[in-house]
Amino acid sequence: MMSTPSEVTPPQDPLAPVLGRVASGVFILTVGDGQGNETGMLASWVQQAGFDPPAVTVAVNRDRWWRPWLDAHPRMALSIIASTQKEMLRHFGKGFAKDEAAFANLEITRGSTGLPLLARSIGTLEGKIVSRMASGDHEICLVQIESATTGPLLEGDTPMVHIRKSGLRY
User: Fold this and answer.
1) Secondary structure of residue 7 in the 3-state scheme
2) What is the three-state SS of 106-142?
3) Is 34 left (phi over 0), alpha (psi -120 to 50) or beta?
4) Calpha distance 35→126 (Å, rounded)
5) Would you state the pLDDT for residue 48?
6) Which residues contact 151 (CB under 8 A, 6 or more apart)?
7) CB-side exposure of 163: number of CA atoms within 13 Å?
8) What is the Cα–Cα distance from 128 to 140, expressed in whole angstroms?
9) Quick one: average pLDDT of 48-58?
10) Nearest Cα residue to 145 out of 125, 121, 131, 122
11) First CA to last CA across the chain, in angstroms?
């Protein structure tokens, strides 16, 4: 006997708070179109996905205006945010329009991808998107890491961790 979706999906009352307690790091994700346009945003759905070759997965909302850039320029960069860098939440939390400079007034460096990296961070990872998979309202990008740098906060701080009250919204 086949079950209907309502029989398979757990009730939303316990789902939202329990799913929200799945802890994640806080990162600044950088993407570009390969033509000089670039942006950055908060990302928390990032997870290591392999040792050899080193890889991470990054979940991206399918409605992001810059998502088509990933077709033309399949590269991403991640800056790992420290627990003391609350100002990064304020700066990147609202998101940026197409014509807004996401890294204005921030000290940045550039690595192997050419994308902006935060100069003050735990460290950075850069790589090529080697696979993409649909996941409901998000898309999962498998990023093979091509380079990494240690940041000035690597030894003196801990990574910022994000826990949500509800796992059904940001």
Assistant:
1) helix
2) CCEEECCCCCEEECCCCEEEEEEEEEEEEECCEEEEE
3) left
4) 18
5) 97
6) 79, 80, 118, 119, 120, 121, 122, 123, 124
7) 6
8) 13
9) 98
10) 125
11) 36
Pairwise CA distance, residues 65 & 152, whole Å? 32
Contact 9, 17 (CB under 8 A): no
CATH number of 25-162: 2.40.10.10, 2.30.110.10, 3.90.920.10, 2.30.38.10?
2.30.110.10
Percentage of the chain with pLDDT > 90?
82
The first and second tokens of residue 152, run together, are: 């000035």
Q: Model confidence over 102-125: pLDDT tens digits?
A: 999 999 999 999 999 999 999 999
Q: Position 30: which residue type?
A: T
Q: Where are the alpha helices (DSSP H) in the chain?
A: 5-8, 12-20, 69-72, 86-93
pLDDT in tens, 65-86: 999 999 999 999 999 999 999 9
Tokens representing residue 16 in the block: 């939202």
Tell me the domain boundaries of the chain. Answer: 25-162
pLDDT for 167 equals 86
